[in-house]
Design brief:
By secondary structure, this protein is an alpha+beta fold. The protein contains 3 helices and 4 strands; from the N terminus they run αββαββα. Strand 3 and strand 4 form a beta hairpin. The structure holds adenosine-5'-triphosphate and magnesium ion.
Length: 137
């Protein structure tokens, strides 16, 4: 696959304007604060002698209450980036902070606990447990 790796700079100095009913803003005092901050994220996959640079210098900020879309051709690194932002993969370089905690400094078991409490994923692949219903999974 020769798709261009994701390489973009989203470095907002001001939170974007998000239209949220004022009642919700009152319920969530952290609305508009940074939920995800990624800095200088790189991902290199290695199989044998072959290295593949899937992500290069990703810098992004996502504010609480935001809905974001990530688009790009197949093989451009979307799943890799989401897996890193969700604490499933650890990047080769860079930092990823969620709710003020740096995922790249956590052990595997700390990451597993953090995911259990904080992350929801709907996978592209079929990752349901056969013994559980979809809701239980
Ligand atoms: N575990 C891995 N080992 C080696 N290379 C990998 C691995 N995971 C992903 N890659 C490579 O990294 C690149 C990005 O893959 P990724 O799955 O993130 O792309 P994608 O944008 O999600 O594609 P799609 O739209 O097809 O889901 C691809 O070239 C892929 O082959
Ligand atoms: Mg994908």
């Amino acid at each position: 696959m020769t798709a261009t790796p994701i390489q973009f700079q989203v470095d907002l100095t001001e939170p974007p304007t998000v239209l949220i009913p004022s009642s919700q803003a009152i319920l969530d005092p952290f609305l508009g604060t940074r939920a995800i901050v990624a800095r200088g994220v790189e991902m290199v996959f290695q199989s044998g002698n072959q290295k593949y640079h899937a992500l290069k210098n990703i810098n992004l900020e996502v504010y609480r209450g935001d809905i974001q879309l990530l688009m790009g051709p197949s093989g451009s690194g979307k799943t890799t980036l989401l897996s890193i932002l969700g604490g499933i993969l650890t990047p080769t370089l860079g930092s990823v902070c969620l709710a003020g905690q740096d995922l790249t400094k956590m052990s595997r078991s700390q990451l597993a606990k953090f995911r259990l409490k904080n992350i929801g994923f709907i996978f592209q692949e079929f990752n349901l447990f056969p013994a559980l219903t979809a809701v239980e999974t």
